[in-house]
Amino acid sequence: MTPEPNRSGEPESRRIADYLGGRWVWIFVAVFAVVALSVRFAVQPSTSTSAGDPTTTAASPPAPTTTMPRTTDGRSTSTTPRVVPAPDDSEPLQNSGVWTMPDEIGNALSSAKDDIEALTDGTKVSVAVSDATGKGRRQIVHQNWQVCSQTPPAGRKFTPESGVTFEVVKKNETCPDNGA
Q1: Each residue of 112-149: pLDDT tens digit?
Q2: Displacement of CA 12 from its chain's centroid (Å)
Q3: Are 180 and 168 spatial neighbours (Cβ–Cβ below 8 Å)?
């Protein structure tokens, strides 16, 4: 699409209307719309709160409601209102930030870490791992390592601040001292 020369013989400059007929413009508009909608629906603000997030606050319990006692046909039986107590929300949150350590000795490191993550329901908890032989080897493939000891011991409590520590050896090795 070459511009037509104007009266002076120079090519006429293009206008926006000239570009709107091109197929590349419509392809760009379609791609832009798809990306915009994808971002809109993929990045929605979360309405849930995490007990591990110090910036969130617990919602206050609903206020008690007042109702008038009624008969089966809907007529009021008295002139004195009856106060219905609000639901009891005094139970601690399910994810209170304190958990009981499971027994992970003898399990694969990958399984032990998955168990901690599932137990804490996504709350960030420090999980330190070290080579129980003292050789300082790095644990690249976690399925190839087994847990020899853990801190805290099974049945004890831990928090995000206290964290969890596993000492591990390769699966084909024996744990030092109190081997699993």
Answers
A1: 999 999 999 888 999 999 999 999 999 999 999 999 99
A2: 58
A3: no
